[in-house]
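Lab notebook, bench 4. The sequencing result for the construct came back, and we need a structural model before the next group meeting so we can plan mutations. Quick request posted to the team channel:

Model the 3D structure of this chain.
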Amino acid sequence: MGKYDALARIIIQNVGGKSNVISVTHCITRLRFKLKDENKANTDILKKTDGIVTVIKSGGQYQVVIGNHVPDVYDTVVKIGGFAAAPTEQADDAPKEKMSIGAAFINMISGIFSPTLGVLAATGMIKGLLALLSYFGILSSTGGTYQILYSVADGFFYFMPIFLGFTAANKFGLNKFTGMVIGASLVYPTIVSLSSAEALGKIFAGSAFETSYYTTFLGIPVLLPSGGYTSTVIPIIIAVYMASKIEKFWKKIVPDVVKAFLVPMLTLLVAVPLTFLVVGPIANFAASLIGLIASTIYSLSPIISGLLVGAFWQVFVIFGLHWGLVPIVINNLSVYGYDAFLQPFFAASFAQTAVVLAVLIKTKDKNLKSIAIPA
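Done. Here's the predicted structure in token form:
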């Protein structure tokens, strides 16, 4: 018997059994179940089970908090339960969850970003390490060693539309490789270089909305953000959502004998031009507006910003609401090159560190102590 076999069987049995599970994924510390009927789950039993920290119901998910070893427990649960290791959207005959707009949004953002968190943290830490090595003169930023390691550190952020194209496609039920191709088109070198080329003309000339364009599609001006779509978030998410609807349309009318290649071909021929002509400009305007509002709040009153982010950050995390702030921060970084909105969360993080240290020292609960150490 494997190390986590017994725990996995207890979890499966007390979430209502295999037949009650629509899908199961995991984040850094939690197993995230989508259940057909949460009333069938034995929450009290799970909370008292050795190896489980607690159980949380949030954002339409039944979350079993395990700790940092959750990937191993997840693999065992998937193996014993016979669940899909990379779940797609729920089947048409599965019951539809009734969620509020806020819960649905959090569920969407969580589903798109959660699979990338490990690599996101890893590459971010490598960038930080390289910055220190360069600052202290241990590595030259122009040397081959630095450049190779930096390609690892920066590659994820640069090609983020491709990675999010995959995870968003998984979330919205689009062919995953179609989603990746849409992301690849956004960061294609020729497209990226267009944003720094000589402008072909301007639209809304003479007005406050005057904007230069650098290329056209069938004679229609294509508006590109400065630096292109590398490291962007919102455009690819909206584009993949739109493509998922387009794909469903083609699946209904394209004959089965040619569906395998004709559906993705037609989907891409429609979705990619629409992304560059409509989604991209609107999304970037919205991203800039959101970033401007967030920065304005900070500029007008750091106190309000601190209260909103610093004082309530851990509350946001408990209920999964922090996912709504992540795209704002990433867009601030891509649009402005910096972010001021999320800075106050450090106050909450350091306060939590002190609290966890106190818990570690005082508690006699083995489960609580085991999770407090890595926390």
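The longest strand covers residues 21-26.
Will bring this to the meeting.
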